[in-house]
Every structure is written in structure tokens, then in C-alpha cells.
Amino acid sequence: MAKIIMVCCAIFAFIEVARTANVTCYTCESSKDPGCKDPFSSTNLATNSSCDACVKAKIGSVVARGCSAGGETGDRCFTILGTGTCICSTNLCNGSSHVTVTMGTIMGSALYLMSKIFY
């Protein structure tokens, strides 16, 4: 469980909080906020309104939601090494079970490096 939390933290370390305000996103981790897991419950969860895009990452049963910087456009999802990651660009879009993502190359590289470090 500690490795999963470390990987989640590392993912969001690579995705720094945006410097320009344009999208509001949920910010939570399911190991600390039960409402953050799937199925999602937004009751009493924090949001951040200073995001370029929203992110949702799922590693096993742990779900993390937060902000992404980088000016990405378009919405997509991808899975690498068992970690599903999505980025989307509308308000509170990371609250759904199926979110869409960009930054695949950056996140894929980060996840590959983390898997080599932690496993």
C-alpha cells in the first residue's frame, strides 16, 4: 500500500499545479478521502480552481484526482503498467469514473521510471 501511495504522490509531483486559472478540479486521494474512490462522491471533497486541466489516476484500488499544468488541449486516457491516467479540460471533469486524457508521453515516461525505481 505504501508503494501505491508513493507512486500516486510521484505522479502528481510530475503534474505541477497550474499557474493560470481556467479549470476547477477535484483534489483528493482515495486512501485519505473515501469519497474519492470509484464510485465517486463529491461530498466534502476539496477543489482547486487554478488548473490548466484535471487529472485522475488509478493504481489498483487507489484513486487520485488533481490538477495538471502544461497547457494540454484535447481529452484522452491511457494505461501503462497497470496505472490508468486521464486528463480532461472542463470544470470538475475528473469526478467521473471515465475521464479523458492528454500528456501520454510525459506520464508514460514518468510511470516507467517510477516502476523501475519503486519495484
Automatic annotation (TrEMBL):
GO terms for biological process: regulation of synaptic transmission, cholinergic; sleep. Pfam families: QVR (PF17064). The keyword Glycoprotein applies. Residues 1-20 form the signal peptide. Keywords: Glycoprotein, Signal. This is Protein quiver. It comes from Dreissena polymorpha (Zebra mussel).
